[in-house]
Amino acid sequence: MKIWLTLLGSASLAMGSLTMAAAPKPVSRPVEQDNRTIVWFDNDFLGPGQSNLQALIPLIRDPAVHLLGIGVVTGDQWLEEETNHALRFLEIAGRPDVPVARGAQTPLIRSLPEMKAWEARFGAIPWKGAWNAPKPGRNYHPEDPDLVPPMVEGAPTTKPVAQDAVHRLIDQVRAHPGQVTIICAGPLTNIALALRIAPDLATKAKGIVMQGGGYDMQAARVLDNADYATDFNFIFDPEAAHIVLTAPWKKITVVGNVTTSARMTKALADQIGTSGTPTARYIAQYARIDQPLWDEMTVAVALDPTLITKKFTARMDVDLMPGAGYGTAQIWKDDLAPHRGEQMVEVVETIDVPRFIARFTAQARQ
Fold first, then answer.
1. pTM, whole model, 2 decimals?
2. Residue 232's Cα: distance from chain center in Å?
3. Pairwise CA distance, residues 329 & 242, whole Å
4. Closest by alpha carbon to 195, among 260, 241, 264?
5. Per-residue confidence of the chain (366 residues) as pLDDT tens digits?
């Protein structure tokens, strides 16, 4: 039997050689290169509507963008609730093919009891995201992270991928070295965990763009809506922000204060809604009127830096001391910085708001 199998194998190999020899030589064709902007998007998807979910629109509508997937992190809502809102929005927008991966359910160190103790000493934090106290008319559930209240836009039928957001991000960046722009519009917990598991993430990515790093916002907390002048993404997980800002990225862009320079008006929501597409109707129904277009602007700047009209560079880190400044961004001129790992950051000051609004409106109407 063994001899027979050996002979059979030899004959098969011989026949294969003959076939290959007789076959015509294949014509070589150039490999088609993907020149699109390759993106991984990490966010806390408060829903329905809201800036977090609306920021997905350019990523799924712009043909020049290759969206590898999205990572979900607890922030404005709990992880499970956010994941369901993201999945449902993608279904409504006709893009259920986009991979959605669940990430961190809690910050690295900060906790609700610790935040309450901090507030008792230094003053209230107006927006605490998933930790907001129960309130009439709002589905806050700070003590129940796995609860998903009834969804007015309908529950999703699609599911998140099995792999967690942290490891999926690592795999995608390593699979596309030097090409992936990481856009973060929520707390930076997932990115910090990825950096701890795979420190090469920072050098293998093309760069990172984050919504956060607000500076000189104290007066705005008095003169404007205090919710809109609190650097929530850094304050919710300061240690994560520190880890990300001290990693050796090729480029770091921070879109902080400027993101309050454009807001979702009723006129804008109505204008989008008139197109009648599922996405447009979703915005017309669920958009939060007068909310800054924080995350939409962050994505827009990441995809098209020519929108930036004014910027500066500085070293940036996060205050981790247990005092009144805990979780706030700290910036220095290069020669004045302590140089303990803080990186040089591009801080966006102003953008071309009319061009940004016009492009977002056109994409949202699709």
1. 0.90
2. 14
3. 9
4. 241
5. 333 333 334 333 333 333 333 444 444 444 456 789 999 999 999 999 999 999 999 999 999 999 999 999 999 999 999 999 999 999 999 999 999 999 999 999 999 999 999 999 999 999 999 999 998 988 999 999 999 999 999 999 999 999 999 999 999 999 999 999 999 999 999 999 999 999 999 999 999 999 999 887 777 777 777 777 789 999 999 999 999 999 999 999 999 889 999 999 999 999 999 999 999 999 999 999 999 999 999 999 999 999 999 999 999 999 999 999 999 999 999 999 999 999 999 999 999 999 999 999 999 999
| Both structure tokens of 26 | 């294949």
Per-residue tokens: 166: 């942290």
Spell out the residues 6+ positions from residue 318 whose beta carbon is closer than 8 angstroms to its own.
Answer: 234, 238, 241, 242, 245, 327, 328, 329, 330
Residue 145: alpha-carbon gap to chain centroid: 20
Q: State how far the Cα of 83 lies from the Cα of 160, in Å rounded to an integer.
A: 8
DSSP state of 257: G
User: Pairing between strand 329-332 and 308-318?
Assistant: antiparallel
- Extended strands (E) in the chain: 37-43, 65-72, 100-102, 180-184, 207-211, 252-255, 308-318, 329-332, 343-351
Domain 33-364 CATH superfamily? Ribonucleoside hydrolase-like (3.90.245.10)
